[in-house]
Amino acid sequence: QAQVAESGGGLVRPGGSLRLSCAASVTIYTIDTMGWYRQAPGEQRELVALITRLGSTNYADSVKGRFTISRDNAKNTVSLQMNSLKPEDTAVYYCKVRQYSGLDSWGKGTLVTVSS
């Protein structure tokens, strides 16, 4: 199973920006999709954005046009650039990697708080 670690969370004001990063410790080129999920207090975990090895992306409707996901296949890293942040974006953000074997690995999460 891959070791997955997120970084970059914190407190930001509404309208601000934040960049999350995630690194997966696993054999290079064994990862299929990489994605970001989030879970707000009292809510279920939801998909934020996904990216395949070839660069195809998928976003939740609530973040389209504001968030951008990108990855570096050679380094097994994925990033999430978050702009125009809103209070409703407040959540713990998790990175998930899915290997070609079908195995999913999750990070421990990083807290993003959007508040004035």
Would you summarize the structure shown here?
This protein has 116 residues and is mostly beta strands. The chain is 0% helix and 54% strand.
Largest sheet: 7 strands, mixed
Provide the residue-averaged pLDDT.
Answer: 95
How many DSSP E strands?
11
Poorly predicted regions: none
User: What best-fitting shape do the alpha-carbon axes yield?
Assistant: globular
Query: What count of helical segments does DSSP give?
Result: 0
Pattern of helices and strands: EEEEEEEEEEE
N-to-C terminal Cα separation, in Å?
39 Å
Please compute the radius of gyration using only Cα atoms.
13 Å
- DSSP strand content: over 45%
Helical content stands at under 10%
Structural class estimated from helices and strands? mainly beta
Descriptive report:
The chain has strands at residues 3-7, 10-12, 18-25, 31-39, 46-51, 57-59, 67-72, 77-82, 91-99, 104-106, 110-114. It is an all-beta fold and 116 residues long. The strands form 2 sheets. Strands 2, 4, 5, 6, 9, 10 and 11 form a 7-stranded mixed β-sheet that branches. A 4-stranded antiparallel β-sheet has the order 1-3-8-7, with no helix packed on it.
